[in-house]
Write a structure and sequence with these properties.
Strand order of the largest sheet: 9-8-7-10-11-13-12
Oligomer: single chain
Helix content: 10-25%
Order of helices and strands: HEEHEEEEHEHEHEEHEHEE
CATH architecture of the largest domain: 3-Layer(aba) Sandwich
Structural class: alpha/beta
Radius of gyration: 22 Å
Distance between the termini: 76 Å
Length: 298
């Protein structure tokens, strides 16, 4: 029995036939595929030799068994627009399922980081029972939904070990992301356990009522440190702070963060956990530092 052709081999064969026996240029070796969409790398098929048209995009779609094709772009603007360019198809709405959660969003307008899957799973599989949580940079609900989930589901849909929070307050200023977040909350039947605050969280005054605050903004969420500390209950809680650390210096970065936070509020701050999420850039790692903030003993 002949081996099944790889997706790359199928793509190469299809484009060679499309080019009348000639492969006009280099083809990507990897891409992101989900639902009925393929997102190609930013430099895919940009050489002058390709001269892409609708027939070429359709050829690629057929060979990879998808309906829509897009190409990565640069994340831009205050709203962190994804920069993805739609090349084939008329609609950029997609639903992705991860850890038993359905996320809906416009992929040309809102970011999705597949590399953060482990952090979303870590949240989903943790016990947040009875907690009130503040998510300062909610986006489409990347972390809001895992906090509200019953744990990452197994292959047959069985319940995971995580336990959901009592309530999450989600802050987001991108109207397109807010629309997606509302859809996702409804689709997962947790809308009644989430309050959305639309707009700049720096203009909000939060009561000191939260057990946990998530600060999931890159490259830095430093502007939210003061807000997060003021929002914790008087008996303290946990901050999940995302940031970028030089490879090999993650512990140093985390300890310096704890010291900085301790100077900003009347809490004793200590590093509880460092999660190494992914490489963000050469020699820079995306990490999440769990900071335990405790009342200062008199």
């Amino acid at each position: 029995m002949a081996p099944t052709p790889t997706p790359h081999a199928r793509l190469e064969k299809a484009l060679t036939e499309w080019g009348n026996g000639v492969l006009r240029g280099e083809i990507p070796t990897k891409w992101e595929k989900f639902a009925d969409v393929v997102i190609l790398p930013q430099n895919a098929f940009v050489e002058d030799e390709w001269k892409p048209d609708d027939s070429m995009w359709q050829t690629i779609a057929d060979s990879l068994n998808v309906q829509r094709i897009a190409r990565m772009g640069e994340v831009e603007g205050e709203y962190r627009k994804s920069g993805v360019e739609l090349l084939l198809g008329d609609d950029d709405w997609v639903v992705r399922r991860e850890h038993g959660i359905d996320y809906g969003y416009n992929f040309t307008q809102c970011m999705w980081s597949a590399g953060n899957v482990t952090e979303r799973g870590r949240i989903a599989n943790s016990n947040h029972e009875g907690e009130r949580i503040l998510d300062l940079y909610a986006g489409i609900g990347y972390y809001t939904l895992p906090f509200l989930s019953e744990g990452a589901r197994g292959p047959n849909g069985e319940r995971g070990q995580g336990r959901s929070a009592e309530h999450v307050v989600a802050c987001e200023w991108n109207p397109t992301a807010v629309k997606a977040l509302r859809w996702t909350l409804e689709a997962n039947e947790v809308r009644n356990r989430c309050t959305i605050i639309e707009g700049d969280n720096r203009n909000q005054r939060f009561e000191a009522e939260f057990d946990r605050v998530n600060l999931g903004l890159l490259p830095s969420s430093e502007e939210g440190y003061g807000i997060a500390l003021q929002a914790l209950k008087s008996e303290g809680g946990v901050l999940h702070i995302h940031g970028l650390a030089s490879g090999g210096e993650e512990e140093k970065w985390a300890e310096e963060l704890a010291q900085k936070l301790e100077k900003m509020a009347s809490f004793s701050c200590s590093v509880e956990h460092i999660e190494r999420v992914k490489w963000y850039a050469p020699h820079q790692r995306h990490i999440v530092v769990d900071i335990r903030a405790s009342p200062v003993s008199c």
